[in-house]
Amino acid sequence: MGTINTFNFYPEAIDKAATKAKEAACSATETIKHKISDAALNLKDKASNILDQVDTATSHQTEALLKKSQEIEVEIESTKT
């Protein structure tokens, strides 16, 4: 007596299981896509915040240097007279 192939007896069950597996895979794929998209947006926001902080710091440094150079210029002028 040979082995009985049980797959031949339940083709509808196999199709149903395959459909459920495909649906689960699609759902998982969509979830992963959303998580990647959310992570990318989060990183973009963080990068933007860092660049804003750098711009602010650079602006403050530029203002401080300008003020200091003006003070030095005043000192130089006062020593000339």
Brief summary:
With 81 residues, the chain is mainly α.
SSE layout:
Elements: H1 11-80
Could you characterize the architecture of this molecule?
With about 80 residues, this protein is mainly α. The chain has one domain (about 20-80). It has 1 helix and no strands. The protein has one helix at about 10-80. The termini are far apart. The mean pLDDT is about 90.
Total beta-strand segments: 0
Tally the helices.
1
Domains counted in the coordinates: how many? 1
Biggest sheet: strands, sense, closure? none
Query: What's the mean pLDDT score?
Result: 89
Indicate the overall shape. rod-shaped
Which features would summarize this protein structure in a list?
81 residues, 0% strand, 1 helix, 86% helix, mainly alpha
